[in-house]
Amino acid sequence: MPDTLLAAEPAPLAFDPARAALVIIDMQRDFLEPGGFGETLGNDVSLLQAAVGPCQRALAAARATGMLVIHTREGHRPDMADAPPAKVERGAPTARIGCAGPMGRILIRGEAGHDIIPELYPAAGEVVLDKPGKGAFYQTDLELILKNRGIDTLLVAGVTTEVCVHTTIREGNDRGYRCVALADCCASYFPDFHRVGLDMIKAQGGIFGWVSDSAALVAALGNKTAARSSAA
């Protein structure tokens, strides 16, 4: 199929939707809702809500074209054997990873808070990837999934921009994937970190990748869908 052109910085990116994946990082209740891990660290979780609507639009466009969709969740085994002590020791002693919270044990797989928010809940057949760290490649089978599907381009959304999104894009870039941060589909508890994180990705001619947004993706995939419908 001919390449689709995505408006982006530092330059437009031509990509094939059949070889691209929408990767939605950690849109979990523990990070976005009151009472979760994000709030226990002293953050204003309402700041992350800005990414929900744009993520919904990007997700709908990806689903309409049959693009591979991958959702990630950061969290740990119930026995916490995969949770490093240095990570567990963060936060108030009574509100750390593994402690009981309003949505179950904080950042523990299988608990309500660990799951993805209802607005972006995975559809049947979409990949849900549980990861113990910040990056989506670390200690997961993400790279195997991508290689099996012939993926070369990652459209990355989610939270937080400067931590899990940035780490995943850096990991993907090192592995040879073309990585695009969808700016309005990402968010941070610190707006300045969000801005600078995006600037770092596209600096120096795109040292880690590209920066685009949900409107550009919807437009690009809409053109592709229209062309496919005309051909049919």
Overview of the molecule:
This protein has a single domain (7-13, 30-231), classed as Isochorismatase-like (Rossmann fold, 3-Layer(aba) Sandwich). The protein is built from eight helices and ten strands. The chain has helices spanning 29-32, 37-40, 52-65, 85-88, 142-148, 161-174, 191-206, 214-231, and strands at residues 4-6, 13-15, 20-25, 68-74, 100-101, 104-105, 127-131, 153-159, 178-187, 210-212. A six-stranded parallel β-sheet has the order 7-4-3-8-9-10, with helices on both faces. It has a two-stranded antiparallel ribbon with strand order 1-2. A two-stranded antiparallel ribbon has the order 5-6. The longest helix is centred in the last third of the chain and has 18 residues, at 214-231. The radius of gyration is 17 Å and the shape is globular. One of its GO terms (molecular function) is hydrolase activity. Pfam families: Isochorismatase. Residues 20-213 form the Isochorismatase-like domain.
Percent of residues in helices: 25-40%
Number of helices: 8
Would you count the extended β strands for me? Answer: 10
- What is the CATH level 1 assignment? Alpha Beta
Q: What name does the CATH topology carry?
A: Rossmann fold
Distance between the termini: 14 Å
CATH architecture: 3-Layer(aba) Sandwich
Instruction: Encode the helix/strand succession as letters.
Output: EEEHHHEHEEEHEHEHEH
Strand content: 15-25%
* CATH homologous superfamily annotation: Isochorismatase-like
Average residue pLDDT? 94
Largest sheet: 6 strands, parallel
Low-confidence stretches: 226-232
Keywords: Hydrolase
Protein name: Cysteine hydrolase
GO molecular function: hydrolase activity
Organism: Ancylobacter koreensis
